[in-house]
TrEMBL record:
Glycosyltransferase recorded as keyword: no
Domain of life: Eukaryota
Protein known as: Pectinesterase inhibitor domain-containing protein
Native source species: Asparagus officinalis
InterPro entries, per the entry: Invertase/methylesterase_inhib (IPR035513), Pectinesterase_inhib_dom (IPR006501), Pla_a_1-like (IPR034088)
Keywords of this entry: Disulfide bond, Signal
Gene Ontology MF term list: enzyme inhibitor activity
Signal peptide: 1-22
Keyword Disulfide bond attributed: yes
PANTHER family: OS02G0537100 PROTEIN, PECTINESTERASE INHIBITOR DOMAIN-CONTAINING PROTEIN
Pectinesterase inhibitor domain boundaries: 19-170
Length: 176
């Protein structure tokens, strides 16, 4: 009798685990297309993603994007100080970096607003803020294009764009 309970217990746990994993992978299948692997890898890095529903995954994706935008802000500051130190700074690069700094700073507030609205299940409101946040890495790339210099943040802007796109698409799933 005791054995049977233990068996059922483990059966329940393993079913719960595979169900949760299916949720993460199913969610990534629905939203990520060719970025499926990136989606699974990014979200899996957060242990609570295993047991999260769409709302939980949206919050995790938004949080990851906040961390990434913050990382990019630090990178911009680092470029600004190294450009000044080495006197390699050109006015055009300076303008572009200032623009990126502003974009990512606003991007972090966009994402924090989005996060609060997802928590409150105001999904339409969250999508307004996420759409704004989505533009920030593009604005940064555009600033470099306008400067006529090559972008110093190709990798960072690309990674941030992929993450914010995931956050946006997973948030749409909550209401669809
Ligand atoms: C998101 O980040 C905030 C602040 O770091 C944290 O309190 C919260 O638990 C995180 N939420 C999720 C779902 O990871
Ligand atoms: C987020 O969106 C709301 C509209 O839903 C807007 O009023 C608010 O200013 C936005 N927050 C940020 C940080 O842009
Ligand atoms: C943010 O993006 C960079 C690439 O630009 C990546 O190397 C880094 O791991 C990411 N960091 C976080 C916290 O997501």
């Amino acid at each position: 009798m005791k054995g049977a309970y233990i068996f059922i217990y483990f059966l329940t746990i393993s079913q719960t685990l595979s169900l949760a994993l299916a949720t993460l992978e199913d969610t990534c299948k629905k939203v990520a297309g060719s970025d499926f692997k990136f989606c699974v890898t990014s979200l899996q890095a957060i242990p609570s993603s295993q047991a999260a529903d769409a709302k939980g995954l949206a919050l995790i994706a938004t949080n990851l994007t906040i961390a990434n935008y913050t990382h990019n802000l630090a990178k911009v500051r680092e470029l600004m100080s190294s450009a000044q130190e080495r006197l390699i700074s050109s006015p055009q690069v300076e303008v572009a970096l200032n623009s990126c700094l502003a974009s990512y700073a606003v991007g972090v507030s966009d994402l924090m607003s989005a996060n609060a609205k997802i928590e409150a299940v105001d999904i339409d409101g969250a999508l307004v803020n996420l759409s704004e946040a989505w533009k920030r890495p593009i604005e940064c790339e555009d600033a470099f294009k306008k400067s006529g210099m090559g972008s110093l943040l190709v990798k960072e802007d690309g990674f941030a764009s992929r993450l914010v796109t995931l956050a946006l698409k997973i948030t749409v799933l909550i209401i669809s």
